[in-house]
Amino acid sequence: MRAKVETAQAPKSSKSRATDSDEVVVRDVSPAAASPRSAKKKTGGKKSARKKSGTLKKSVPMAARMDRHDLYQKSVQGVEAEIDFIEETFQSLRGRKPTLIREDFCGTANSSCEFVKRRRTNHAIGVDLDQPTLDWGYENNVMSLPPSARDRVRLVNADVREVSKERVDAVLAMNFSYYIFMQRSMMIEYFRSVRESLAEGGLFFMDAYGGYEAYKECREKRKIDKNFTYIWEQAKYSPITGIMDCFIHFHFSDGSKMNRAFSYTWRLWTIPEIREMLAEAGFARSTVYWEGEDEDEDSDEGNGIFEPDEEGTADPSWVCYIVAEK
Ligand SMILES: C[S@@+](CC[C@H](N)C(=O)[O-])C[C@H]1O[C@@H](n2cnc3c(N)ncnc32)[C@H](O)[C@@H]1O
Q: Which residues form the domain of 245?
């Protein structure tokens, strides 16, 4: 199986926001349950007022005008490639495509929206602890879907370990979001609850990152377009606890900055640790999908194609997928 995946960026691609609240609020914010929102804003009729707001717009720094979720989606995520990988891998292992997925740590539910867009039979449940982020996803991603697809995304405000065990074909935990569970016991509890949520033959998809650069305290800049640059900062890493603090900052072409737009505190787990915990949680098998190398000899980039591998390579920085079978 050769699934072509364009990672939005290296490990530094997607950051999950660590939220360690014990409070569990299960609130359905599916379109039917969500409060009505106006998609349109009334524009002022007066010419002078419009002119005034135009002037204001220019004088307000870009950092104050830009939306951090929008910037995150543009710089971190590659949901088309991610859903390609999930569909192709599911097809290859199970001989059919998945029709119901659960996107854990869904944030703005961008992947769920990409999934339901593809087929009328596709449904997705997005789970996240942070209601404002879910609201943003509802207003900007779910409401941008064709009307017939909107009802096929359900957003649930809950802890991923507590969400109801509705049986799904696949659970997704992407952009390393599950690294927020810092003790083995917590991670195994989460993996067990994922396993219980999977239908017979269900698959659990997650990504992982590492390489010797992952342990460095450093900053990496990437220009996304003419307007802004994305900065991934590994601010602190403790070799004793394995815990790291990371930030995403955005810098704009007018010189303004949105510092610490997102913050993450993670344990930098290794692949063998993750696989051992999956086995302990009862998964029958886990497979690592490792990225191939670019054919261009001068390039040190991956080729975006992830295939089952038993060894990998000692790259300075890598991202891979792990697929666990119920
Ligand atoms: C940066 S987002 C990841 C978004 C998306 N999955 C992606 O691939 O980019 C991480 C999300 O995990 C959520 N989160 C953290 N702990 C959680 C938990 N225990 N249960 C549910 N969501 C959680 C945060 O609110 C945050 O929105």
A: 213-264
